[in-house]
Design brief:
CATH architecture of the largest domain: 3-Layer(bba) Sandwich
Oligomer: single chain
Structural class: alpha/beta
Radius of gyration: 23 Å
CATH topology of the largest domain: FAD/NAD(P)-binding domain
Bound molecules: flavin-adenine dinucleotide
Largest sheet: 7 strands, mixed
Helix content: 25-40%
CATH superfamily of the largest domain: FAD/NAD(P)-binding domain
Number of strands: 20
Strand order of the largest sheet: 8-7-16-17-18-15-19
């Protein structure tokens, strides 16, 4: 409750998984906090949302859940969706020098022909060492990912395996990426292994994260909150260095507290009334974008959920065949193959028309699979997103933005603050809920923002 005895009005901007889980948790914290969420798109879910494709609703971008995503699974259970989750053994492969290699099991790694035995053992050591022995990741923050991987696994393994993978993931720009990134990734990927069987298990909700997003909307509304879809916030109005409300299409609405969950660059554009210095600090954080071609095929292309590509001649980052996890009957019988390319803003793909992206990617797919025939493609679509992954750096050239901003009544909770966990459904929903609890506590205790 505010000092003058009224309910506290809180606005959450952004209806991706982070904003939705934050708003949901906030409605659970106190009856006198009135939450309104604003999402510019006509559907909730953000990058984890779905779209109509080939006669079914499918993920815009490929998404899977790991059996180790315990907080996310607990949220799914709490929202009554646990019976909609399906887990399955999935496989991973490598495309190296025009050949496909299975790489799911430790033995397959130890047999990987392009590497000498000593290199394979060092690669296995890198993975085991990361999984079992590194508990304190702070020293990794000071080391470049390149230096660390060469120290552990040797230069040859680095040049043949890690370097092409890092190039593909970071669009060549990984000089400033700390070793923490690859450690965190190894730990997450290995956590997909079922402890008893050693099989790699991945899961999904039938209908994708979109179903979770819609269930979160219902839960926010059931808790007394409101969700406004198609609500593109133009500006957060700041007076005397305090956020006082939102400029909406139909006028101004006052709020006691505003929490933004969008990427930092978008946040900066929303606050022209904040200091130039603060806005610039938000804009220096580099983000990867993505260009992704989705194919709906009449047949399966590979047995793998993920195919990593170490061949630098191929322009996309990997090949994800989600229907090796999702039963094709849930997506109108199509076989879904995503060809993603993570990009920095200067990459020519950012400005390439969709028709040309499709042409280039299909030509390269044909190089990988000479039998591939375009007649197999029932539907194809290019998806793009400018800000999908904030990049963390070795130390200090850009700052992680804090939850407490220099503007009163204004907080930021976004993926740039999530580290060393990678950003995914598990980490963003856990983070969003944690921030909601902390902020609600400060509202109650002091009726104003404190450091969280
Ligand atoms: C290619 C790809 C594959 C992935 N694979 C997986 C996976 O397998 N498993 C997994 O768990 N996670 C995966 N992820 C990660 C996961 O999708 C993200 O971590 C998560 O969805 C981020 O949620 P968010 O709410 O932080 O951001 P977003 O989803 O970007 O949400 C931000 C929201 O803010 C809204 N917004 C922006 N500006 C305004 C405005 N002015 N007014 C109102 N609203 C605004 C946007 O429309 C958007 O809905 C993947 C992501 C990508 C891109």
């Amino acid at each position: 409750m505010t000092n003058n005895g009224e309910n506290m009005k809180v606005a959450v901007i952004g209806g991706g998984l982070l904003g939705l889980s934050l708003a949901y948790e906030m409605t659970k914290q106190a009856d006198d906090i009135q939450v309104q969420l604003f999402e510019r798109s006509n559907q909730p879910g953000g990058v984890a949302g779905s779209m109509s494709f080939g006669g079914a609703e499918v993920d815009r971008f490929y998404h899977c859940i790991l059996s180790s995503d315990s907080d996310l699974l607990q949220l799914i259970e709490e929202l009554g969706l646990r019976d909609q989750v399906r887990f399955k053994e999935t496989r991973m492969g490598f495309y190296h020098n025009a050949k496909l290699y299975p790489m799911t099991k430790p033995l397959e790694l130890l047999r990987f022909p392009p590497l000498r035995l000593v290199d394979r053992l060092r690669l296995a050591y890198t993975i085991l060492h990361s999984r079992l022995f590194i508990k304190n990741w702070a020293p990794l923050e000071k080391k470049s990912v390149e230096k660390w991987l060469i120290e552990l696994g040797g230069r040859r393994t680095y040049n043949l395996i890690w370097k092409p993978l890092l190039n593909a993931k970071f669009d060549g720009g990984f000089n400033n990426i700390p070793a923490t990134y690859i450690w965190s990734r190894i730990v997450r990927v290995s956590s997909a292994s079922d402890k008893k069987s050693g099989k790699e298990l991945s899961g999904h909700i039938i209908g994708g994260y979109q179903v979770l997003a819609e269930r979160l909307v219902k839960a926010i509304e059931a808790g007394g909150g409101q969700v406004h879809l198609g609500a593109n916030i133009k500006e957060i109005v700041i007076e005397n260095n305090r956020a006082c409300g939102l400029a909406l299409e139909n006028g101004f609405e006052a709020f006691d507290s505003i929490i933004v969950t969008t990427p930092s660059h978008i946040f900066s554009r929303l606050i022209p009334g904040a200091s130039q210095e603060y806005r610039q600090s938000l804009e220096t954080i580099p983000y990867l974008g993505i260009v992704c071609l989705l194919l709906g095929l009449d047949r399966s292309l590979t047995p793998y959920y993920t195919l990593n590509i170490t061949d630098t001649a191929i322009p996309f980052t990997g090949l994800i065949e989600t229907t090796n996890l999702i039963n094709p009957e849930f997506v109108n019988g199509n076989h879904l193959v995503y060809l993603p390319k993570y990009i920095l803003p200067e990459n020519p793909l950012a400005r390439m028309p969709d028709s040309q992206v499709k042409e280039v990617f299909l030509a390269d797919l044909k190089k990988m699979f000479p039998d591939f025939d375009e007649k197999w493609v029932a539907e194809a679509r290019v998806m793009r997103e400018r800000f999908v992954e904030p990049l963390h750096n070795i130390q200090g050239t850009w700052q992680t933005p804090q939850v407490v901003t220099p503007v009163g009544n204004l907080s930021l909770a976004n993926t740039a603050q999530i580290w060393p966990e990678l950003t995914n459904g598990q980490s963003v929903t856990t983070y969003g809920r944690m921030i909601a609890r902390k902020l609600a506590r400060t509202y109650k205790e002091e009726n104003q923002f404190l450091n969280v």
